[in-house]
Amino acid sequence: MKWTIVAIYVLSILHIHFRGRVRLPVFRQLFDHSSVVAPLNTFMHALSGVPLTPFLPTSRFPDLLPLEQNWQMIRAEALNLIEMQKIKAAEKNNDAGFNSFFKEGWKRFYLKWYDASHPSAEALCPNTVALLKTIPNVKAAMFAELPPGAKLNRHRDPYAGSLRYHLGLVTPNSDRCFIDVDGERYSWRDGQGVIFDETYLHWAKNASDQNRIILFCDIERPMRFRWAQKINKWLGKTLMTAASSPNDTGDQTGGINKLFRVVFHIGRYRRRFKAWNKTVYQITRLALIGGIAAWIIFG
After folding, report:
1. Mind listing the domains of the chain with CATH numbers?
2. How far is Cα 74 from Cα 68, in angstroms, rounded to an integer?
3. Where in the numbering of this chain does the Aspartyl/asparaginy/proline hydroxylase domain appear (predicted)?
4. Which of 212, 267, 280, 298 has its C-alpha lying 20 to 30 A from 59's C-alpha?
5. pTM value?
6. What is the distance between the alpha carbons of residues 182 and 199, in angstroms, rounded to a whole number?
7. What is the CA radius of gyration of the chain?
8. What is the pLDDT along the chain (299 residues), one digit of tens a residue?
9. What is the distance between the alpha carbons of residues 7 and 1, in angstroms, rounded to a whole number?
10. Which residues of 261-271 are buried (b: 16+ CB within 10 A; e: fewer)?
């Protein structure tokens, strides 16, 4: 049984690494979070009810059409938040999923996050929140800002149970502001939506001199079988709700982000150790991971 589990894990990591045209360096892949959750995401890919391609046509998701039809109303509420300076980075290191983006100037305001509560969104964006409630497949939504000159490094998102939807609200309408998914580029345009699989390697850049604001949504991945869809729904409700992050006081902070605040502070010592001697740091890291792997396999 133990060797079966090891084999499943190894094969799952190989699947994640070799899917698509763009790959991480092997050493980085071994320590990437996508390797940790590889068996779960391999399950989602294997039973996906939509093609495994970097981009998907929005026509496959007709229930999202009201978002494009009402994009100007959505934009008006986003612009109001900009004036109030409510689209911002996390203030207390309590947004593990997007923490690395904040140093690049990326900002967000949560409208919905699975089953978590965000009273601030209902108070400040009532029309957009009401519209989102009419589309059950939208499991999470936020306004996301990418300022001029900002770049988000190449990465995979951790959960393959969802697909990503972007709706352009205030964009440069230029090819200088784009997202690259598995080597294919898309440039945002006002009022236009796009769907992509965020478990392919992707990165984004705003090389223009104008701001970019989009509606950013997680859409539940359709699965081929009803039982698989139920598993996906349950995992989203339990795992992803635990990753909720607040806009303001009164919004829900999930357990993962409560833990992340503690881990972040501990990580300061790790970063000091790495800055002191990077070679010793990497040797220590490999030794610890090797020790854990040996204990799992031979213990």
Report:
1. 55-252 (2.60.120.330), 254-299 (no CATH)
2. 9
3. 68-222
4. 212
5. 0.87
6. 10
7. 20
8. 677 877 888 899 999 999 999 998 988 888 788 888 999 999 999 999 999 999 999 999 999 999 999 999 999 999 999 999 999 988 777 777 787 788 889 999 999 999 899 999 999 999 999 999 999 999 999 999 999 999 999 999 989 999 999 999 999 999 999 999 999 999 999 999 999 999 999 999 999 999 999 999 999 999 999 999 999 999 988 888 888 888 998 888 887 766 655 555 555 655 665 776 777 667 766 666 566 555 545 55
9. 10
10. eeeeeeeeeee
Within its chain, how far is the Cα of 212 from the centroid? 18
Tokens, residue 284: 């220590």
User: What dihedral do alpha carbons 57, 62, 66, 71 form, nearest 10°?
Assistant: 0
- Per-residue tokens: 232: 């996906």
